[in-house]
């Protein structure tokens, strides 16, 4: 029996195969150029705490895997800076939520965007990696590619974006993926279904796993410990005069100032409602690695309705231990 393969039955159109070949050639070109220069230059940008975590792990892995010395430049938080990044400006400058929150900061946003583009062009990276923060990241990659064409720059950087857009969150979201291939050479996806959908819409993509899976391999996520066994920067529950039989709730108000300003008062009202039914209620307030958030929570701490301990960021095991003593 003979089968006629029509264009509609092809899982991937010819253009997708062409892009795959081009992506392979681009990766090979990066290695060749870096070898000639004697180093691999990576311009990496993250605009929020979760991206700082992902970016720092990526930087650590690149250091282990690269046969060449690596030099980083770009924008990131404290975790990425610990891995060797000298951030152009504080990552918090990019952590703005939503259209309405962005409007008052629009001029500053444009200034930071131009500063980042100029720094990237001057750095002459072999690779540009943006992590999440799609509003800033996609604008950066798009304008960088336009700058390459405008100045007819040779040896243009290969663009990677880590964390695919949440196209599955809205109806018809997949249709918006096609335009990404104009300025994104490869997507790193954290959900398994995303790779296939991205490829079907002409965007090179690879499923690399969710960050929490790395946590599971590195840390004990299900360890249960008693409240008095939890150590917070050397301070235990007993040192805070909190009974060991306390009812403990972890509070996670967010990592960006706008969401913390919105969520922390709601959590505070909830704790007031729970205060009488649970007389030994204690809250563990998780503080993101964001100076603005840290300052805001610190100022609000004195008015918190029940005993509380601030859980600092920076230690993943500490975070999961705090979850372990919570309800």
Descriptive report:
It comes from Arabidopsis thaliana x Arabidopsis arenosa. This protein is α/β, with parallel strands linked by helices. The chain folds into two domains: 10-216, Glycogen Phosphorylase B (Rossmann fold), CATH 3.40.50.2000; 220-325. Helix content is 43%, strand content 15%. The chain is built from eleven helices and eleven strands. It has helices spanning 14-37, 49-65, 78-82, 98-102, 106-123, 134-150, 192-200, 211-218, 257-275, 291-300, 316-325, and strands at residues 40-46, 70-75, 127-131, 158-162, 186-189, 205-207, 231-232, 235-236, 247-251, 281-286, 308-311. The radius of gyration is 23 Å and the shape is elongated. Mean pLDDT is 81; it is low at 1-21.
List the helices and strands and how they pair.
Elements: H1 14-37, E1 40-46, H2 49-65, E2 70-75, H3 78-82, H4 98-102, H5 106-123, E3 127-131, H6 134-150, E4 158-162, E5 186-189, H7 192-200, E6 205-207, H8 211-218, E7 231-232, E8 235-236, E9 247-251, H9 257-275, E10 281-286, H10 291-300, E11 308-311, H11 316-325
Parallel strand pairs: 1-2, 1-3, 3-4, 4-5, 5-6, 9-10, 10-11
Antiparallel strand pairs: 7-8
Helix pairs in contact: 5-6, 9-10
């Amino acid at each position: 029996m003979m089968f006629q393969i029509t264009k509609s039955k092809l899982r991937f159109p010819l253009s997708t195969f062409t892009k795959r070949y081009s992506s392979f050639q681009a990766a090979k070109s990066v290695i060749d150029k870096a070898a000639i220069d004697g180093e691999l230059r990576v311009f990496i940008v993250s605009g929020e705490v979760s991206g700082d975590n992902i970016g720092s792990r990526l930087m650590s892995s690149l250091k282990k895997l690269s046969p060449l010395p690596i030099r980083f430049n770009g924008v990131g938080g404290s975790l990425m800076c610990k891995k060797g990044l000298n951030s152009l400006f504080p990552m918090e400058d990019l952590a703005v939520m939503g259209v309405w929150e962005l409007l008052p900061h629009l001029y500053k946003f444009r200034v930071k965007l131009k500063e980042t583009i100029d720094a990237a062009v001057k750095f002459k990276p072999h690779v540009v990696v943006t992590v999440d923060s799609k509003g800033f990241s996609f604008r950066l990659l798009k304008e960088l590619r336009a700058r390459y064409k405008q100045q007819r720059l040779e040896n243009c950087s290969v663009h990677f974006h880590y964390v695919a857009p949440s196209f599955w969150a809205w109806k018809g979201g997949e249709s918006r993926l096609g335009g990404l291939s104009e300025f994104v050479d490869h997507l790193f996806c954290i959900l398994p279904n995303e790779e296939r959908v991205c490829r079907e819409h002409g965007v090179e993509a690879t499923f690399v796993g969710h960050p929490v899976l790395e946590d599971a391999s590195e840390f004990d996520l299900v360890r249960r410990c008693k409240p008095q066994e939890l150590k917070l920067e050397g301070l235990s529950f007993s040192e805070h005069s909190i009974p060991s039989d306390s009812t403990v709730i972890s509070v996670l108000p967010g990592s960006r100032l706008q969401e913390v300003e919105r969520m922390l008062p709601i959590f505070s009202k909830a704790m007031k409602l729970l205060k009488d039914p649970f007389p030994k209620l204690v809250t563990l307030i998780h503080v993101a690695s964001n100076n603005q958030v840290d300052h805001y929570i610190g100022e609000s701490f004195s008015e918190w309705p029940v005993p509380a301990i601030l859980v600092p960021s920076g230690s993943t095991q500490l975070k999961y231990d705090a979850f372990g003593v919570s309800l």
